[in-house]
Amino acid sequence: MINQEFEKAVASMSELPVKLPPDTMLKLYAYYKIATGLKVSLNALDQGAQSMIDAFKSNALFQARHTDRDQAMQQYIDLAHQIQQEILKNKD
Fold it and tell me: How far is CA 75 from CA 19, 29, 30, 50, 53, in A?
């Protein structure tokens, strides 16, 4: 069940009519990577920070490093729902 909700949330985020703030995009990135099976290790994070963007992505993954796959899916779903609610609220 959570897999289907997660897939719906991912699809909805890829079709947004607005650009999200960078910090929100980084949270979605980290939750997505963890939810889809990325193993987060500190060594990989240190080696991967070659550009400014990679550094921000690595930091987002570092902050979510204690999140397991199911938690990451749920947090992605929750954040996607929150984003959709804010978009609807601002539309009025």
Answer: 20, 11, 10, 27, 22
Residue type, 8: K
Q: What is the pLDDT of residue 39?
A: 67
Give the Cβ contact number of residue 16 at 10 Å. Answer: 12
Q: Tell me which residue of 6, 15, 14, 24 sits closest to 60, measured CA to CA.
A: 24
- What per-residue string of b and e applies to 23-44 under the rule 16 or more CB within 10 Å gives b? eeebbbbbbbbbbeeeebeeee
Report pLDDT for 80.
Answer: 98
Do 88 and 29 touch, CB atoms closer than 8 A? Answer: no
Q: What is the pTM for the complete model shown?
A: 0.82
Q: Supply the pLDDT for residue 45.
A: 53
DSSP string, 49-64: --SHHHHHHHHHHHHT
| Max CA separation in the chain (angstroms) | 46
